[in-house]
Structure formats: C-alpha cells, structure tokens
Design goal:
The complex is a heterodimer. By secondary structure, chain A is mostly helical. Chain A contains 13 helices and two strands. About 5% of the residues of chain B have low confidence. The chains are: A mainly alpha, B mainly beta.
Chain lengths: ~350, ~260
C-alpha cells in the first residue's frame, strides 16, 4: 500500500511542473459505531454523518458549552447530567436561562441512534433537529443559531475544531447539529446486567430479579418492548391532568384529538437513576410509579385501552411483593459502565 | 486508506488541470436567473396594513404580515431533463414587507432552454440527509418562521384582521408547516412557462411569478375565518390551506 502511494506521488511530481505544496490531509480518524449484539438496527443513518474523532470532540465541547444559551451558562449538559443517565437529577421540570422553568422533565440521553422520534411528544423527527428545540426555547437555552454561530466564530479553538471535523470547515447550524449528533449517537448504553444475561455473557438474575422479569414481561412489556424497553409509541398512561401545566402531550404535534395527553413511552434503561418520573416529573420513586399503575390510573377519552380492565377497574394489578420484584428487575437495567464512561464526561 | 484517497484525488485534479483543450465536447456554460414573486389580490399588488379585501365567505380582511418559504428550485427542459439548483442553496424567504426578498437571484444554472419550473412550498423535512436545511435557521429565526416548541419551519405566516358585516375586527393567524411524522404540508409546485426560458452565459433572464394571495382562502377549498381564524397545528384546516397554496402561483412572463 505504501509503495503504491509513493508511485502516485512520483506521478504527481512528473505530471506537471506545478510548484504547489504537497496536500496534507487533516488527521481525523473515523470512530467505530458498533451496534450491540442484542440491539436492533439503528434508526439514525450513521453513514450520512459518520462520527469522527474531531466531530465527536466538537460535539462534546458544544454539548457542555454554555455559549449555546443566551446567558452563557445553560449548556445541554446542565439538564442532562451523566451520573443520572443524562437527566436533570431531582429536578421535576427542566431549568433554563434566568431561572426559567420548563414544563417537562428532561429525558435521559442514551441509545439515541436507535430512537425514531424525539422529545416527550415527538416534536423532532430526526436527531439532527432535536437540539433546535431546547436551544431556541425561551424557557430553556433561549438562544438563536445566528447568535451561536457568531459566538463560536470568535473562539479560535472552535474555528480549528470545525475546520478539522468537517470538509467544508464551516461554523454553521448544519455542522453544529451534526457534531452534536455525532456525540449523541456514540452514547450507547448496553452493558447492564440485563444485557449481559441477554447476550449470554455469564451473568444470572437473582431469584427476585428473575421473578420481576417474568412479571415485567406480562405486565409492562407490551409498551416497554424489546431490548430498548420502549415501542416508541405515544400513549396516555392515566396520569391525572396537572392544572399547572395542562400538558396536551402528543396533541401539540399532531393536532389530533385522539393524541390528547399522550406521551412517548420512555425507555426504561437506567431507570433507577432517572428520577423523578413521568413527563412532568411528578413521581419521585419507582415505587410511586408502580403505585400509579396499580391504583392511580385516571380514566379519560384517550386512556391506554389495555388499562381498562374487564371488571371496570383501571390500571395494572400488582401486589406489593410483585412491585418489589419488578423494581429489582428494573435495577438490572442500570449501566455503570455508561454512567462512568469518560468519553462522555464533561471533565 | 483515506490518505491514499486524498492523494489519488489530488493526482486526478492535477492531471485534469494539465489537460490540453484539444476540442471534443464543448465546456458546459452557466448563466443566471432571477425569479420575481409578486403577491397580488385581484391582480393588484397587496398593501400591508391598509388595503382591505373581501373573500368568498364575505369576510373583509387586511393583511399585517405575509411571509413564506420557497425551496428546492428545479428547471425542466422540454425533453424532461432537469436542472436541480444546489439544494443546500435553495431555501428562500419571501417577505411581502421586504422588497429585495421577493426577487430570488440564482447563479450557476446550466445553459439551455427550459419550459417548466418546479419548486417547493415550505421545507421538505421528510428527506435526509438534511442538505443544508438547518443552515436556513438563522434566516427563519430572524423572521419568526421557526416554531418555538417544535423542530421545524413555519412554511407560511399570514396574519391580519378581519370583520364580518361591519362588526368588530378580530385577528386572524395562519401558520402552516409540517409537524412530526403525521402532518406534512410540504408541497411541490410545477409551473409551465408561457414562453421558453433561455439561460446563457451573457443574458440575465427573469421569470415573473404572480402569487394570488386570495387563493389562500378561496382556492381548491374555501376557508372561512369565522369558522377558524387561528390555524396553527391544525390537522384539518392546514392541509386544506396548503392545497390552496399549490394553486396560487402562475408564471406571467419570461424575459430572456
């Protein structure tokens, strides 16, 4: 191979007496995007935005940079903290610039390459478009893309990184969003105890976890389906309407009455750490969540039909013991390797 | 491997640049084109804020704001051959208030004779890669053409006030765009040119496009403001209005 390139160089030298300097390509190695053996094919077309070392580094820098917000403080990482699977730990709703409060609970970031739509209501249909929402929302980062481009152009380290990461070398919204996606698609969480069992890597469930898994399969897995633990649909899980937010859910995106108060079925990976729960963070613990499903479901026009039982009662029947078993199983979905992976850490 | 590709590419470029002009096929040439959009009602240019108009539902309205996005411009020859304007440079905001915005200047168009023009109303959010689509964000955010809660563009922003039978004026607001995967209001519009358009290196041809704004209310479908004066994320009315919009453009003249 080397000999071949030498020949080419000689040929170039001989082909015309140009005194141009030798072209020195920028070193920007491709990153390996590997689909875990027990995962489905990604939804994100990785070949259209193949992650590279520099693109990933740039995406990470942008993710943790307050310059993406109007007050220079609120970065993506402000509400998406790695230790808690990139959620805003203990915050019921997301916090934005100037102490503004959002209306929804920040969702975890992991396995984004495998998701078809984004945010609680599916307002973003592509990962490259998702960051537009928090960046421009007044109660979140409250910034404009022209503002961000201007700020980044003043930073020599960004000028250099964009030039290294992208062929056209430009600091523009396209490249900002592509870099953020390169960072996010690499955030794969697939090394939980559950994964190791699913992939036959030698781990085994405890008896309690195994019972929990059986219960989970019969009571939860119709929505929290497959190895991603979500069928990526939108459903009304019977939460009472909170008058403070009166969040119409998926209806905001489709305008359809049938989508009123429906929200994306979330993945349950790392669920142990992503409290508080639900789209508005109203439930503090996993036990509260299961109590909601067994006893708290409120009826409405769009309530998930499987919650309407033959005898007229609502929800999913579970005993206290069963709840403990299910929670024991859910804790096998915690991925310590991911939570401690330096590649994704701010510092 | 990548290194070698670069070296080969450099090699190829050098070889090509050293080539003699020894006849063969002629070098392709390129020219410019200007598209003149004229927003009219009853064949008269519209006046924001002052003039009032009456729609088929007998509602008298004035317009305070009129903006829309044109994208994905394609020129078509009589034999069906297409010249696709570079997609990443093919997003334009027409703003009634800004005279310069109503003239779209295109460059580097392949010389030839064209008989049709095709363009998009709005932004095609269903196709990936995004082809520079997000590089239009700064223009859109300056003119309020970005939804704040959703990752997408408003394709048209049409606002004003209206009265019925001399009653008290009320505001109307029509924002049409695509949302999520269920509501896609992007439209492709193909127009016949009344005479052939000739693109050459030396000329500066123009195509005049009349945009009959009255058709937003009264086109293929009729939209009454009394029935719905606030059309935003509207799975019923927004698609009907988008359909009306597909019929509001006509090419009135080609000057080569």
């Amino acid at each position: 191979m080397k000999i071949f390139s030498y020949i080419v160089i000689i040929l170039i030298g001989a082909s015309c007496s140009s005194d141009k300097e030798d072209y020195v390509p920028i070193e920007n190695a491709a990153l390996q995007f590997t689909v875990p053996a027990n995962f489905p094919e990604p939804s994100y077309n990785v070949s259209l935005n193949p992650p590279t070392e520099k693109g990933f580094e740039l995406g990470k820098k942008l993710f943790y940079d307050g310059r993406l917000s109007s007050d220079g403080v609120i970065s993506c990482g402000f509400c998406h903290i790695q230790d808690f699977a990139f959620t805003h730990h203990t915050h019921i709703v997301s916090h934005g610039v100037g102490g503004a409060l959002g209306t929804r609970n920040a969702q975890p970031l992991h396995n984004m390459a495998f998701m078809k739509e984004f945010t609680w209501d599916g307002a973003a249909r592509h990962l490259d478009l998702q960051p537009i929402i928090p960046i421009t929302a007044e109660v979140e980062m409250n910034e404009t893309f022209s503002g961000i481009v201007k700020k980044l152009e003043d930073q020599p380290e960004y000028v250099k990184l964009f030039a290294e990461a992208f062929e056209d070398q430009k600091i523009n919204p396209d490249n900002i969003l592509k870099a953020l996606s390169q960072f996010m698609i690499m955030m794969i969480s697939a090394n939980t105890k559950y994964d190791k069992i699913e992939r036959n890597e030698g781990s085994v469930f405890t008896q309690e976890e195994a019972s929990g898994f059986e219960l989970f399969k019969s009571k939860c897995a119709s929505c929290h389906q497959g190895t991603l633990f979500t069928d990526q649909s939108y459903r009304n899980n019977g939460l009472a309407i909170d008058p403070q937010y009166n969040d119409i859910g998926r209806n905001r995106v489709t305008g359809l009455a049938e989508d009123l108060h429906k929200f994306k079925v979330p993945s349950l990976r790392n669920i142990e750490l992503t409290f508080p729960y639900m789209h508005d963070g109203r439930l503090k613990t996993l036990n509260d969540v299961l109590d909601h499903y067994s006893d708290g479901v409120v009826n409405s026009e769009t309530l998930e039909p499987t919650f309407k039982r033959q005898d007229g009662t609502l929800g999913i029947p579970m005993t206290a013991e069963e709840k403990l078993q299910i929670i024991a199983f859910l804790k096998t979905l915690t991925d310590d390797d991911f939570l401690n992976d330096d590649r994704f850490s701010e510092f | 491997m990548k290194k070698i590709a670069y070296i080969l590419l450099t090699f190829l470029v050098i070889v090509l640049s050293c080539k003699n002009d020894d006849g063969g096929t002629p070098e392709p040439t390129f020219g410019t084109l200007a598209l003149d959009f004229k927003n009219t009602i009853n064949a008269t240019g519209i006046e924001l804020g002052t003039d009032s108009y009456t729609n088929a539902s007998n509602e008298v309205y004035t317009i305070s704001e009129l903006k829309y996005i044109i994208s994905n411009i394609v020129l078509i020859k009589a034999n069906g051959e297409e010249f696709v304007y570079p997609v990443d440079r093919s997003y334009f905001l027409i703003n009634e208030e800004v005279v310069a915005s109503k003239k779209i200047n295109l460059a580097d168009i392949s010389s030839g004779e064209y008989t049709k023009i095709k363009f998009g109303f709005g932004v095609d959010q269903s196709k990936y890669p995004l082809n520079g689509m997000t590089n239009f964000i700064p223009t859109a955010e300056e003119s309020g053409m970005l939804w704040s809660w959703s990752a997408g563009y408003k394709f048209i922003k049409f606002e004003g006030s209206y009265t019925v039978n001399g009653g008290t004026p009320a505001d109307f607001l029509i924002h049409v765009g695509s949302h999520g995967t269920t509501l896609d209001n992007y439209k492709e519009i193909t127009l016949d040119l009344p005479t052939a358009l000739t693109i050459t290196e030396s000329a500066s041809p123009e195509v005049a496009i009349n945009v009959d704004i009255a058709k937003i209310f009264d086109g293929i479908n009729t939209h009454s403001l009394v029935t719905k004066s606030d059309v935003q994320v509207d799975p019923v009315n927004a698609p009907l209005i988008a359909e009306n919009i597909t019929a509001m453009f006509t090419v009135t003249a080609v000057s080569n």
